Amino acid sequence: MHEMSLAQAVLQLIEDAAVKDQFSKVTTVWLEIGQLSGVEPEAMAFCFDAVTRDSVAGGARLEIVTLPGQGWCMACAKTLPLAEVFGPCPLCGDYQMQVTGGTEMRVKELEVE
Ligand SMILES: [Zn+2]
What we know:
By secondary structure, this protein is an alpha+beta fold. It has a domain at about 1-70 and about 100-110: hypothetical protein PF0899 fold, CATH 3.30.2320. The protein has 2 helices and 6 strands; from the N terminus they run H-E-H-E-E-E-E-E. The protein has helices spanning about 5-20, 40-50; strands spanning about 25-35, 60-65, 70-75, 80, 100, 105-110. It has a 3-stranded mixed beta sheet with strand order 2-1-6, covered by helices on one side. A hairpin with a 4-residue loop joins strand 3 (about 70-75) and strand 4. Helix 1 packs across helix 2 (about 40-50). The longest helix is centred in the first third of the chain and has 19 residues, at about 5-20. The protein is elongated and about 50 Å long. The site of zinc ion has 7 residues, from loops. This is Hydrogenase/urease nickel incorporation protein HypA. Keywords: Metal-binding, Nickel, Zinc.
């Protein structure tokens, strides 16, 4: 389950921010997860709870914001919504779409005390 190492990376980021911005408790974490990132939001939530238990983010609420997938279709010369990485163009059905968005995962915002 790669969500465990991703959750640890998120925690590392939060702990770095805690040192830099001098807060000792995080109450809410907004995490953006791209539709095409391969990250399962439910698995992520589970792992986040596990790795943050004894940290500044222990007991924090995790708000997952899903970002839609996007791809560029050469045939249509357009950026279009893309539901899966190797999915077809929703306009012409071509399978040559290049993924342009929705593969990222990042911490958008922290609510701290
Ligand atoms: Zn197309």
